[in-house]
Amino acid sequence: MKLIQKLKIWKELKRLETKARETPSPSTFVDLGQVYINLGMHERTLQLAEEGLALFPHSDELRKLRKFAKKTQLNNRIKDLRSRLSKSPHPKLYRELAALYLELGDFDAVHGTCEECIRRFPDDDGAFLVLAKGRLTNFYRDLIAQDGLEAVRCLNEVIRLDAANLKAHRLLGEVLYRAGAMEQARYHLEIIRDAAPGDSEIAEMCERSASMGSSGKELETLFMDIEEKGVLPNAPIARGVTGKNLATNEEGIGSIRDALAHLAEIDGVRKAAYIKGSKALVKGEIRDGRDPFLRVSRVVAKAAQRTSRRMDIGNFSKGVVEGDYGHICICNYGEVVASVLCDANSDVEYVLAELQELVAGSLYLTGAGSE
Amino acid sequence: MNAIQELLDELREVAGVSGAAVVTSDGIMVSSVLKGRFRDEVVAGLASFLITTTKRAMGAQTDHGFSRFIMHATHGKVVLVDIQAAFLVVITDQFVEMEPLLGEVDEIGRRLARAAKLPS
Q1: Looking at chain A, which residues constitute the CATH 3.30.450.30 domain(s)?
Q2: A27-64 pLDDT, tens per residue?
Q3: What is the architecture, at CATH level 2, of domain B3-115?
Q4: In chain B, what residues touch A141 (CB-CB under 8 Å)?
Q5: B62: nearest CB among A307, A313, A324
Q6: What is the pLDDT of residues A207-232, one digit of tens each?
Q7: What's the CATH number for A243-366?
Q8: Are A280 and A294 in contact, with CB atoms under 8 Å apart?
Q9: CA gap A1, A3 in Å, rounded
Q10: What are phi and psi of A332, to 5 degrees?
């Protein structure tokens, strides 16, 4: 009986493999992945999900399949490490385990594992480094001050235990630079520059931190400002677009104005606005910069940003407020807010996609996409 | 189990929904079915903050507040629906398909509004 069942499964597997090869689509890949999962072939499932995503990079089902396969694969390794740790605890095993939890995005487990390691091996810098990496990941994603400050504390602890830990100096130098703590960043960046003179990214950060000087603010204040504004003051060097900003880049403003005009021409759109900090560009039935719609867009985007972060669901990216007045569509990234007031029967999905396009394009043009 | 709780339980069964709650605009939790990391007092407080801030801002634009607020974030989505006496708050993962979900949410919202009117 078992043999017959096995044969049936293998026959089905062959059929699905052929189907995925001949008529590839997210669903054929997912169906095949399901059979691999049932057979316990997790490595193959992961490989298949990667192959599928190479063909269909926007498929949610394939992303879910990859996530599941990855999780299963990591969970098996976690189980193995846990059993080895219970027999003979070693800092290296703790570090490896914490790194796996980090990969899974389970920060509570990372924290627990590192704390356990620090309790048992207080002179081991590795656990502090993993803890710092976890905090940094969260900080760069959500811009919560507490995460940034904790990352700095952990990295300082690593350097206290091992002053020559270049990885810690690099991470600390970069986060301080991006947060605007130039004076403190320079010390760590110079250590890295001396150790790796060929690193152009570090050399440029060193140069900029020296030329920009200190803001005179406490580290806590800088991180609280970042949380409040939702944007890091300095972009990473490799991705930064230098020498351009909204105030000076006429070409950039022209493109934003054109995109805004295009938005205002969509059927049903009554008002369109692009807001960056205290400046705004408007199109449609908006009289001037004192139009209440601008204030509504700013306040709602900020309130939504605060709510989503405190609710621990990451950064607010877009939203739709519906009422008797129609729909207010808002797209938010850092300090940029683009919004539209349109009729209730408008194509909201299309409007939101155009708003996202406008915001993404403007960040590239103005070099504001620091995070 | 009361009618509101039953309706929230029904909503929780929808794929991708991480939790649902009925909250008054001043932050009182009427009923909830929240999973995992979402805590009653946090969700009630934040929903109240978002509702009152948005309504206040709308005051300048219109006399009315809002009937529905859909919020997309990096790791999840939140839908707020005005059910007259209170607001229905639905939290989902980031992958959920909005169109079918909104159909379910609106239907439950209508039934909740009716249930809230009935004497207990």
Answers
A1: 243-366
A2: 888 888 888 887 878 888 888 888 888 888 777 788 88
A3: 2-Layer Sandwich (3.30)
A4: 74
A5: A324
A6: 888 888 777 788 899 998 888 777 78
A7: 3.30.450.30
A8: yes
A9: 5
A10: -130, 135
